[in-house]
Amino acid sequence: MKAGSRIANAAFAKKLCTAEDAAAMIGNGDNVGMSGFTGAGYPKAVPTALAERITASANTGNPIRIGMWTGASTAPELDGALAAVDGIELRLPYQSDPVSRAKINAGHMEYIDVHLSHVGQMVWQNFLGHLDVALVEVAGITPDGDLIPSSSVGNNKTWLDLADRVILEVNSWQSQDLTGMHDIYYGTALPPNRVPIPLVAPGDRIGVPYLRCPADKVIAVVQTHAPDRNTPFKAPDATSQRIADHVMDFFGAEVSLGRIPSTLLPLQSGVGNVPNAVLADLQHGPFDHLTAYTEVIQDGMLALIDSGKLDVVSATAFSLSSDAVERFNSNARDYRDKIVLRPQEISNHPEVVRRLGVIAMNSMIEADIYGNVNSTHLMGSQIMNGIGGSGDFARNGYLSIFITPSTAKDGAISAIVPMVSHVDHTEHDVDVIVTEQGLADLRGLSPKQRAQRIIDRCAHPDFRPVLQDYLDRAMQSGYGRHTPHVLDEALSWHTRYLTTGTMRA
Amino acid sequence: MKAGSRIANAAFAKKLCTAEDAAAMIGNGDNVGMSGFTGAGYPKAVPTALAERITASANTGNPIRIGMWTGASTAPELDGALAAVDGIELRLPYQSDPVSRAKINAGHMEYIDVHLSHVGQMVWQNFLGHLDVALVEVAGITPDGDLIPSSSVGNNKTWLDLADRVILEVNSWQSQDLTGMHDIYYGTALPPNRVPIPLVAPGDRIGVPYLRCPADKVIAVVQTHAPDRNTPFKAPDATSQRIADHVMDFFGAEVSLGRIPSTLLPLQSGVGNVPNAVLADLQHGPFDHLTAYTEVIQDGMLALIDSGKLDVVSATAFSLSSDAVERFNSNARDYRDKIVLRPQEISNHPEVVRRLGVIAMNSMIEADIYGNVNSTHLMGSQIMNGIGGSGDFARNGYLSIFITPSTAKDGAISAIVPMVSHVDHTEHDVDVIVTEQGLADLRGLSPKQRAQRIIDRCAHPDFRPVLQDYLDRAMQSGYGRHTPHVLDEALSWHTRYLTTGTMRA
Predict the structure, then answer these.
(1) A349–chain B Cβ distance below 8 A for any pair
(2) B474 vs A: CB within 8 A
(3) ipTM score of complex
(4) Which helix (H) or strand (E) holds A281?
(5) How much is the pTM?
(6) Coil, strand or helix: which one is A89?
(7) Which of the residues B137, B169, B295, B366 is marked catalytic?
(8) Can A295 be counted among the known catalytic residues?
């Protein structure tokens, strides 16, 4: 089919222009709400053109900097390109781009790291300033002027609803069979006018399959034909495999104890190789008729559908490898009744996450012996990516599981430390910690009981005696045995790493 | 009326016995779910008798220790008495008793500090072990055998539903006009069987006015006539007054900006004198038809009802002064259509808190320059009280405000520090920080912007230059300018206090 046929409505077709023309409609100081979530469904052409415009303008002494709001992470040609030319004044709510990260950590770019379920609400509340432009990729425009969402939904509804001006990219690379896979809920409101979200199972459809946007708000429509950023899939290594096996054993025990059904409960799985290893294990495990209520559909989730283990997955975006994308695009129609893509305010909504009883599985950077978790910062100061949706799921879910290899940097860093250098998930929100060494079920334990269990089960043997020594001395240090700390040593592992390149003494 | 007439059902009346007889039915190792929330509605007689039994038994070489679960804090004759005789093996989910606190910090008692909205769910999930006994105060028993709840609801529904054996205390001191004030929602379930909670306004009644319990589970009924622990009300001091004024100015500005309606949004107010000062200010402020969706009804809330400013308050318990209790008990019937008392799993429920758009105002111990908040620990190790419901409201509410005087201990302690010694509310969950010095609105700010604002607006002038110096040097220290820290100094204010008795250099 012709790329042009993706724009079946005349009022939108009239706005067709080049990426360069569209980029020229974005001005200095604009807040721009862009599509994009984990490298899926982000605009492919206008950001690059905008980066060029920014460079040209800077050369004439007229710097252009924008506020850039997205769903979550995007891709090098968006986050990377705009950060590289210093075009971003403020970035939110999540990024994972190396260039952006470097700019943020150098102090050249402001970054607000926000719970992904909170973003829509914050913008509706006008807490973050005015939204000037929405720049959103869609898979097509229907004859009626409805927008067929792309491979992620993210905050697109909010951007389209609230922006003064809208720029659309219509990407003919996206499968047309995405049509009907989305569920856009238009029932949200600001308090005091909110009502219950009528969703009681992961596969429920409570909205419409299209995004809405009045044509007269649209200032430009740009045609593209470009793939999403692909995330290479790595087969689980031995460490990830051991972590996954511990999780599977735990699920088995919980089912035996009658605490969760044999279909488990809706799964949420963070992005990464370790969560993917858990999904791979589930493919061969004893649990059937699984469901998922999660942010992102990774390769492992697609494989679970293919194997018949997973009945339905609700998410807000894909994050697939090239192989998996090909498989998906060739069979999108078959996946349509097993996949629902929602706005991130619904995929991560506290109300729904609590109601469904989601089992949250997220990666972390480090945990301390009391079960506080750091998901975002290296050595307290440097941002890595961001909290993403992990807080939405960990706080309000049924079971909150955090996973990591017990060491990093060839054993120089212990992922279990006396005190984390930054807290994203407090002791109150962490039920289970898993490393390749073992699994620590922290439910029903006091802080010092938790500490002993985490040291015994999760710490790497090289670090276990030093952690035990810390705990023992903290118990004797005298200022309180509820959460015993030796404060002037609590962060010494991190400072030692900064000084010597290793946490080892 | 005779005390006896409070027990109008014969099957229950048959179980009448003494507190000593009832206490004898609680054995070593039992997990006991007790009523009680902020010193209201706790059992008055059996715990004291149990403490005596524990002492006698210990003297014969047979120690008795129980797991003690409540709604929240209770009173000296419960928490204090049982802790004093070392009768509590494990305490949850909240305490504020000096004897308990000392035992926990000495390492003689295990304590799990839990989000109050999570407790019911955790017990239903059987995460905490089996519930052997429920020990619940009620205001009466109807001819049909329904239980008239007392001055708090807490987790009583869960205890009565799940315990093997039930002991009731019928307290004739409680007003009979409490009848009809409660709303006990029996629609909760375990996933995957949960449905939306049909509550869309603070005053909605979605349940029944009584607690249910089959008479054949009841092993003892004890009559009491004893007042709740009263919380003396202190008129706001100058510091509290200044904090309250800052909050009022902020509300006024938010209303002017159209971000919240002039009726505000449902208020949640933590316990304490500073929150009470805010409530007192509201009494004379420009906002009418206020509502509250909160945990606890303090004097200030009652005064807001009396003054006609507050239309309705939903809570799970009272926490009144003697004067206010008298006023309430004499006029309980008149308050009945303005007060709804609910189980704490509903008063603090993430789904409802998010839907209603609650404005959360909670006290704290300290905040750091990046907006992380410590609500629970002194110098990292010692527990003070617990997180209570602050996390339920701060995470899922519309606006999350934390308040504290800028110094403590006659100026030896700064409530604004480089890094908090314990995190209960992360940077992601804290919108506004207020001290008597000023108010820092942190929304839409990156970490280092937040730091500058908190130092400028909230820190005490004596500590401001030192904090500024810390931030400036952290910006230069080089390991990352997203959340710049000098890690080996980050907790030095706390260690200095432990060594010298002051955070001042």
Answers:
(1) yes
(2) yes
(3) 0.97
(4) helix A273-283
(5) 0.98
(6) strand
(7) B295
(8) yes
